[in-house]
Amino acid sequence: MARPTCPSCHRALPVCLCHLVKSFTAAAEILILRHPREQRSRLGVNTAQLVALAVKNCRLLDGLDFERDLKLRSWLTGACLVYPGRLAVDLASQTEAPRRLVFLDGSWRGAAHILRRNDLLARLPRLTFQAPASRYLFRRQPRPECTSTAEAVYWCLEKMPGRSSQEHANLLELLDYLVACQARASAATNPEG
C-alpha cells in the first residue's frame, strides 16, 4: 500500500516540508529542465522540486528533447545556461545580472545528455560559480565544486550582481531538512551504519 504523500512537495506526509517553504521571487527568472529519471527519484523528491516550491518565478519542465518547444525557444532569448565547462564565465565577474537562468537537473551524466540533445541550449552563453562542497550528501558529485540544483540556484542568486536580498537562503534550509530526513530514514533502516 502506497504511503500518503503531500500533493505539493510529493514527500510522504510525515516528512512534508511545505511548512518550511518561504516563497520568494528570484532576481532572475529560473528555468529548470529536469531529466525524466529525476521525477522518479528514489530519494522521494529531487532538489529541483524544492526550488520550484520556493521560487515563484521558476518553471520546471521534464524531458530530454526541448528543440521543438516554440514557447521555450522564445523564453530562452536573453537566457544564460548555468553549466560548467571551458566556455563558462564566472557569474561573480559579471557587471550586469542575467534576466533568465537555465539549470539542467539530473545526474551529471543525465544533464550532459540533455545538453547534447538540445542545440538551442548548447548555443546559450554559459555561467558558472564558485561554491563550497555540496551539502547534498546522498548523491555523489564527480568533483568537489559540483552541487545539487537547489545549491546551484542558491549560489547563482547569492553571487548575482546587484543582489539585495537574502530570501534565497530558504533554499539551503529546505535542502538541509531534506538531507536530515534522509539521514534519519537511512539510520532507521540500517542502524549499524
Q: How would the blueprint of this fold be written?
A:
Blueprint: E1 29-34, H1 36-39, H2 47-54, E2 58-62, H3 70-75, E3 79-82, E4 89-90, E5 100-105, H4 108-117, H5 119-122, E6 126-128, H6 149-158, H7 170-189
Parallel strand pairs: 1-2, 1-5, 3-5, 3-6, 4-6
Classify the secondary structure makeup into a structural class: alpha/beta
- The geometry reads as globular
The stretches of 5 or more residues where confidence is low (pLDDT under 50) are: none
Distance between the termini: 28 Å
Mean of pLDDT: 87
- Considering DSSP H and I runs of 4 or more, what fraction of the residues is helical? 25-40%
Which band does the percent of strand residues land in? 5-15%
Q: What's the domain count?
A: 1
- The beta-strand count equals 6
Spatial strand sequence of the major β-sheet: 2-1-5-3-6-4
Sheet of most strands: 6 strands, parallel
Q: How many individual helices?
A: 7
Brief account:
The chain is an alpha/beta fold and 193 residues long. The chain is built from seven helices and six strands. It has one domain (23-86, 97-183).
Task: Describe this protein's structure.
By secondary structure, this protein is of the alpha/beta class. It is 32% helix and 13% strand. It has a six-stranded parallel sheet with strand order 2-1-5-3-6-4. The radius of gyration is 17 Å and the shape is globular. The mean pLDDT is 87.
Descriptive tags:
single chain, 193 residues, alpha/beta, 6-stranded parallel sheet, 6 strands
